[in-house]
């Protein structure tokens, strides 16, 4: 009986060694996708430690992770491409995204066999394309059982990553996930223990709190603080830590985009001003580059609100809420002071001549 017990202990310790060998000192990261308007070769990867390539898909018939034929070349060459400028940059293949079909992920996670298909195919795909890790963006589990199954998926994924590393002798793949800004969503709690145990870190999506398609007054969609409530990045960070996820497992998300709102009265253009919907088409989303152009072309009045940590501008009946350089610097400083692992941004092509990316890197420092 002693030999099997010692063997089990040895492999358990080896697994832990492989797991903790992936620990990162800092994460200065950003997401990129092929249709963003920015070629991967144009990314200034010297500004980042980690880059997420988005998004791989889930085949609902096979429960395998796949990349569309149109994305095969940019995905397969992504790591080599960004490492030309920054050889130490780490890359992760992100799976899912906001447009993914929630039911497919719920179905996959509900059965051991389908979870295994997902996990095995993700590891194989990441290795074949040269990625250093995998990132799950399931937005969002919609029942208590789906949250439980998410926990099972993460635990099994971590075990498979460790086994693959032991078998091949390669460094273990990083394993991360993009989650809601707080540890509960619509009354459902994330599986804290599997998250803390099985993921290298989680990306907190501390944005899209409000948007002009439904809100009736102007809001910051990514405020760091909320004096009147709990809709803020700082609340989310504190809630995750209180729930049991350590600060070194948390990466604070920032948007490189904003939303344009249509004011009811051009003379009432502060926070919480009445609006009649988005300005322009769709949801009113604008990249930071587009926002800077709007400010310049329309001589818009720009305001930085230090109380909530957000920028906004207005011209005529158009009001735009966004993160400018002051907001980004303050958020990154907050993340560092709180002992978080780092920050990430969605998405790199939305920046304006690397203005926000440079500001974030400078604010964190060495």
TrEMBL record:
GO terms for molecular function: chitin binding; chitinase activity. Residues 26-366 form the GH18 domain. Keywords: Glycoprotein, Glycosidase, Hydrolase, Signal. InterPro entries: Chitinase_II/V-like_cat, Chitinase_insertion_sf, GH, Glyco_hydro18_cat, Glycosyl_Hydrlase_18. It comes from the Eukaryota. One of its GO terms (cellular component) is extracellular region. Pfam families: Glyco_hydro_18. Residues 1-23 form the signal peptide. Coiled coil: none annotated. One of its GO terms (biological process) is carbohydrate metabolic process. CDD domains: GH18_plant_chitinase_class_V. Belongs to the glycosyl hydrolase 18 family. Chitinase class V subfamily. This is Chitotriosidase-1 like. It comes from Actinidia chinensis var. chinensis (Chinese soft-hair kiwi). The lineage of its organism: Eukaryota, Viridiplantae, Streptophyta, Embryophyta, Tracheophyta.
């Amino acid at each position: 009986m002693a030999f099997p017990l010692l063997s089990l202990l040895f492999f358990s310790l080896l697994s832990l060694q492989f797991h903790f060998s992936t620990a990162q000192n800092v994460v200065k990261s950003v997401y990129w996708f092929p249709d963003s308007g920015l070629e991967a070769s144009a990314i200034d990867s010297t500004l980042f430690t980690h880059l997420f390539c988005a998004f791989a898909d889930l085949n609902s018939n096979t429960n395998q992770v796949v990349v569309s034929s149109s994305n095969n070349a940019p995905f397969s060459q992504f790591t080599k491409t960004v490492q030309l400028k920054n050889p130490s940059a780490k890359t992760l293949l992100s799976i899912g995204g906001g447009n993914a079909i929630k039911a497919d992920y719920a179905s996959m996670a509900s059965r051991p066999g389908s979870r295994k298909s997902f996990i095995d195919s993700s590891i194989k795909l990441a290795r074949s394309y040269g990625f250093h890790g995998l990132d799950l963006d399931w937005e969002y589990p919609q029942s208590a059982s789906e949250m439980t199954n998410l926990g099972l998926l993460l635990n099994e994924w971590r075990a498979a990553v460790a086994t693959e590393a032991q078998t091949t002798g390669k460094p273990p793949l990083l394993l991360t996930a993009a989650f809601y800004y707080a540890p509960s969503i619509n009354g459902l709690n994330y599986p804290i223990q599997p998250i803390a145990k099985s993921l290298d870190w989680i990306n907190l999506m501390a944005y899209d709190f409000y948007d002009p398609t439904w809100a009736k007054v102007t809001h910051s969609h990514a405020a760091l603080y909320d004096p009147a409530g709990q809709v803020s990045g700082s609340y989310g960070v504190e809630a995750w830590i209180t729930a049991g996820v350590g600060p070194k497992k948390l990466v604070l998300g920032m948007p490189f985009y904003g939303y344009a709102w249509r004011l009811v009265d051009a003379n009432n253009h502060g926070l919480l001003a009445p609006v009649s919907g988005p300005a322009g088409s769709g949801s009113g989303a604008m990249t930071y580059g587009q926002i800077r152009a709007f400010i310049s072309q329309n001589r818009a009045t720009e305001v930085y609100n230090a109380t909530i940590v957000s920028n906004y501008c207005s011209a005529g009946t158009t009001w735009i809420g966004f993160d400018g350089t002051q907001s980004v610097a303050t958020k990154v400083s907050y993340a560092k002071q709180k002992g978080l692992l780092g920050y990430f941004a969605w998405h790199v092509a939305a920046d304006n001549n690397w203005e926000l990316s440079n500001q974030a890197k400078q604010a964190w420092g060495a």
